[in-house]
Amino acid sequence: MSQAFAVFLFVLAGLLTAAAQVFLKLGALRQYPGLRQYLNPYVVSGYLLLLLVTSLTVWAYQGLEFKAGPILASISYCFVVLLGWLILKERLSPKRVGGALLIVLGMFVFMGSQ
């Protein structure tokens, strides 16, 4: 597997992680009776996405050095901010935007030094 494809898999896993977090938050914002509070469609979808993310991440590690994984996985924080703003209508503060930009900058610095 090429390094570029492995990086793509990590970015895709980051996006799916953020989507799973949105599903889990949507599930937590609704009240369901009894066990359905933990087994509603939003929660189940979120956990299924996280299972897929785990598989993608394991696959992606075949094309990268281990030390690059956590750096690339941090892109999910940026996607959480973006999807929170787009889907959940969360406030996009300068601190959140600045933090996301610092994460992306750090990723480029790390990957450029490889």
How would you portray this structure in words?
With 114 residues, the chain is mainly α. It has one domain (3-112). The chain is 74% helix and 0% strand. The chain is built from 5 helices and no strands. The chain has helices at residues 3-29, 41-60, 68-73, 75-86, 94-112. Helix 4 packs antiparallel against helix 5. The protein is flat and about 50 Å long. The mean pLDDT is 90.
Sum up the overall morphology in one term. flat
State the share of residues found in helices, binned by percent.
over 70%
Major sheet, described briefly? Answer: none
What is the H-and-E element order?
HHHHH
β-sheet strand percentage: under 5%
Q: Enumerate the spans where pLDDT stays under 50 for 5 or more consecutive residues.
A: none
Q: Number of domains in the coordinates?
A: 1
For the termini, the CA-CA separation is 17 Å
| Gyration radius from CA atoms, angstroms | 16 Å
Task: Give the mean pLDDT.
Answer: 90
Secondary structure tally: strands: 0
Helix tally equals 5
Secondary structure class reads mainly alpha
Features:
5 helices, mainly alpha, flat, about 110 residues
Secondary structure blueprint with pairings:
Layout: H1 3-29, H2 41-60, H3 68-73, H4 75-86, H5 94-112
Summarize this entry quickly.
The chain is an all-alpha fold and 114 residues long. The protein contains five helices and no strands. It has one domain (3-112).
